[in-house]
Amino acid sequence: MAKIKTNSNRNSNSEGRGQSGLRARNERRILALIRKHGSAPKAEIAQELGLSAQAVTVIIKSLEKENLLLRKEPQRGRVGQPLVPFALNPDGAFGIGLKVDRRSFDLTLIDFVGNVKASLHENCDYPSVTNLLAFLKRGVEMLTLSLNQELTTRITGIGVATPYEIWNWAEEAGAPADVLNEWKTFDFSERLTDIIDLPVYVCNDDTAACSAELSFGNPNRFSNFLYVFISTFIGGGVVLNGALLTGTRGNAGAIGSLPLPTLNSQGKLESQQLIMHSSLYILENMLTEAGRDTGGLTNSSDYWGDLGESLEIWIDMVAEGLTYATLCSSAIFDFEAIIIDGAIPISVRDKIVNAVAIKVQESDTRGLSHCQVVSGTIGSKAQSIGCANLPLLVNFTQDLQQLVTPQAQ
């Protein structure tokens, strides 16, 4: 199978944009500002970023030449020359995302503004290296059929979203330990570039989902928030000062590992990780014990039907754990909000959000600023869209060293 290759000139430009320097930083600032507002004229960009009109003009011309920006209709009705807004060109750049989940694989192609151009999904009982590579080989050419040859050269890379230390959760995932242990030594960059000749960026799956909310959602424009994604296992991400924070070892926002105080059967205080208290697999186990079918949980994230009392009990458990996570994180980072999303129906997500908001309000929050509890806007595909967004973030928004850690380990 032929590899997908990028245009060498575009690769050179992307590498230059990733380097340090005032010009590179200002390019990223301008692109980020335009993404935030949807469009903006040069005068507004210069004023908001504190740049000279000449500097903005030079950078805008360069970004236009690279097909990253489009001129929109002039804004008339004001004194003086009409202002010409500039917007991101959806076809200016593309990113491919590969999501490795504990129950499935996903390939996603998005454009520069986050529109999903194509996607492929495959369920599995548990993830194996062999099945992943076979899925990628089958899917990568199908994924890019929607792009002509010129647009294909604008694919900036492939982002990989994978659970942190996936091999440590064999029992919870119902997978043979020897199969998951293959991931310990698996080199994504080396193995994936044998199939697709693009830069590879690896990130924790829930951090990737957080990037999707930051870039393509977040209508309230929160600059500092804790992001939560409820899936087979619960996880999260952190945004500080409007930028995605991964941490020095890629673990920022790993709320699934947060020790939650609980009482054992003897009434003694002990701790249990949040991942074993507020994850989706807990609901699956509860339904199995109740003799109910669990196929709806994995087959659809849009509608689960009537799951009875088990669902209500699970929602309360999730809300209890997230209330604790909200209070702990607010005490440390003073977040403006906690944003909750997941591979769950919107109605279930909204019940969890409401339950957390109530529990936080009823908690002892003396000494803490108010933290809003809101729903995410991307939904069940946030991880897939987020990993496809990684190459776009690296090339056009955030510095590589600040964003992606090698192998996310």
UniProtKB/TrEMBL annotation:
GO terms for molecular function: N-acylmannosamine kinase activity. Pfam families: HTH_24, ROK. Keywords: Membrane, Transmembrane, Transmembrane helix. One of its GO terms (biological process) is regulation of DNA-templated transcription. Residues 7-21 have a biased composition (Low complexity). Residues 1-22 are annotated as: Disordered. The keyword Membrane applies. InterPro entries: ArsR-like_HTH, ATPase_NBD, ROK, WH-like_DNA-bd_sf, WH_DNA-bd_sf. It comes from the Bacteria. The chain crosses the membrane at residues 225-245. This is Transcriptional regulator, ROK family protein.
